[in-house]
Amino acid sequence: MASKILRTPDHRFNSLPDYPFAPNYCTVHDANYGELRMHYVDVGGADVDAHNQPVALLLHGEPTWSFLYRKMIPLIAAAGFRAIAPDHIGFGRSDKLPLRNDYSYQKFVDWLCEFIERRDLHHITLVCQDWGGPIGLRALSQLVDRFDAVVATNTLLPNCEAPPHGIDNWPGTLIENWIDTCRNANDLPISALVAGTCAQPPSAAILAAYDAPFPDASFKSAALQITCCIPTTESSPGIAENRAAWKVLEQFDKPFITAFSDSDPSTKAWEKVFQQRIPGAKNQPHREIKSAGHFVQEEQGETLAQIVIAAMRISAARNVP
């Protein structure tokens, strides 16, 4: 093994604002590095019969981590449900691999599937934003019986198909430029990226928390590489698998709710694709969340939490014998 797994020092996560959650860790496997430590927050729910209790699986994207869900986790728990927010490998408190080519779209999916199976999660309401969608929806397609509902916000599942199955002019200038930036960069200004896509920039303390997982550029291989994993052509790695996932979603008749923001041009076009293509999206209370940019959880987390809670209540009622 030529390189070494990186682990952000624990002191970087001391005294983060509104993030009092104890760390939990699950082991997932990598073919090159062996066992990796994947961090997650786990709050709420009953102490007994965990197999049958509803759980909100809160998936972040690029370049954030479970801190993004800090406003939502207590509200979901207070409503009587379990909230689990993992950090993808390479992000947050999870282990970080040193090389960009240590990461692939498929690996992110595999790590999440292994996490779900190792934690033995069932009755999942998937809450996915940004890369949480491409990763989480692929995991759903492979473990569909474990999922009860989806709340999708500012996310996508690229397929390089024409409308209405996909979107026009994919990927478009905005995403192409972002991919080029990451492909040619050796570092990323994490907190500046978060601030730049919010309708109202967060405070300095909040932005510092988004920087916390990355002491220096050597910890940012995942943040740099994940954008380059976006499938943009029919021959891109992930397109065939995404199209297979869409076939599963076309049969998904459980609640699928969109809650996109009003100020995120990078993902907005996918909202209608989800609504029109997935049976479970029919007649659902889809919402457009006002006064929010790309990171809805940061700016309107309380609003999104109530949408998630409502979806979980509907799903829980459906599961009563």
Any overview of this molecule?
The chain is α/β, with parallel strands linked by helices and 321 residues long. The protein has a single domain, classed as 3-Layer(aba) Sandwich (Rossmann fold), CATH 3.40.50.1820. 34% of the residues lie in helices and 17% in strands. The protein has helices at residues 73-78, 105-118, 132-142, 172-184, 190-196, 204-211, 221-228, 239-249, 270-277, 296-318; strands at 24-30, 34-44, 55-59, 82-86, 124-130, 147-155, 256-261, 287-289. Strands 1-2-4-3-5-6-7-8 form an eight-stranded mixed beta sheet, sandwiched between helices. Strand 7, helix 9 (270-277) and strand 8 form a beta-alpha-beta unit.
Roughly what fraction of the amino acids lie in strands? 15-25%
Structural class determined from secondary elements: alpha/beta
Supply the CATH architecture: 3-Layer(aba) Sandwich
Order of helices and strands: EEEHEHEHEHHHHHEHEH
Mean pLDDT: 96
Q: Name the strands of the widest sheet in spatial order.
A: 1-2-4-3-5-6-7-8
Low-confidence stretches: none
Rg over CA atoms, rounded to whole Å, is 18 Å
Straight-line N-to-C gap:
52 Å
Question: What's the structural domain tally?
Answer: 1
Helix content: 25-40%
Could you give the count of β-strands? 8
Provide the CATH superfamily. Answer: Alpha/Beta hydrolase fold, catalytic domain
Using the alpha-carbon principal axes, give the shape.
globular
What fold name stands as the CATH topology? Rossmann fold
- Name of the CATH class: Alpha Beta
- Number of continuous helical runs: 10
Q: Largest sheet at a glance?
A: 8 strands, mixed
